[in-house]
Amino acid sequence: MAPARDNPLLLLLTTGLLLGLYFPIGKLAHQAGFDPMLWALVISLGPGLLIALVSIVRGTFSLRASHLAFGLLSGMLAYVVPNALGFAALPHVGSGFMSLMYAFSPLVTAGVSMAAGVRPPNGKLMAGVAFGFAGAFLIALSRNGLQMEGGSHWFWLAFLVPVSLGFGNVFRTAYWPQGMTPLQMAAITNIVAAFPLALLLLVWGQDGAVTQAMQLPGLLLVQIVLSSAMFVVFFRLQWVGGPTYLSQIGYVAAAVGLLLGVFFLGEHYPPLVWAGAGAIAIGVAISNWPARGG
After folding, report:
1. pLDDT band for position 100 (50/70/90)?
2. Do the beta carbons of residue 80 and residue 200 sit within 8 Å?
3. Dihedral sign computed on CA atoms, order 192, 196, 197, 199
4. Where are the domains of the chain?
5. Residues 6 or more apart in contact with residue 277 via CB below 8 angstroms
6. Which one of 105, 146, 281, 294 is separated from 162 by 20 to 30 angstroms, measured CA to CA?
7. How far apart are CA 138 and CA 154, in angstroms?
């Protein structure tokens, strides 16, 4: 049996759980008027610096030019482009439609992985992804609706979000620098991605956003610690499970978000939402079903 840190299912559930915690914390930040672009910067820069500091103290941190180049491309595909596109398209397509775009990420990842021949998914994993997407679709349809408020060009802009995420998932596996550990990747990718995110904040950020954020130190600290833990297991999951398996974390996070909403935020959901959560659970179970004779 694989040790805990190399167990794909345990890593998937842990990453999805930590990512699912983003939703209630993000909701609190939104209610407090926290600038979305600043929130994206915090989620990137804070964990990057914290993970790098821990690595330096442990004597395991090293930095090469190839790491910086890789971190920049990885961060652009995984954080900067999706955040910029999502931020621009959200007012025009609605939150339900945008959440569905993120649910497309595993399908795009699987397609790119197969086309590039980079750890292509088998039939069992593809079936799991399909069930997960069906569940995410039901949740998005039931909770927010999928009416698009803007023109069709906003649809194509929004669809570039899962395309960027999918290419990012495959890129990290295909071009992972030799000798670079998952912990190093977590630190470098997040720190390097913070620079273009800071530029986006200057362009699109709200006036006084940083000053307002400083009035919420507790919320900032909780999010930085949570994000740091999430990125540590996220990049380990990428290393162990590959791009398509990794991409299922969004489905798990959506299900976790529902449970947190019920137990801690007093939210109530229609039966179709729970059917979606059930489909996600079936998808994860299929993806991890033991092979015959194995």
Report:
1. confident
2. yes
3. positive
4. 4-287
5. 135, 139, 254, 255, 258
6. 281
7. 22
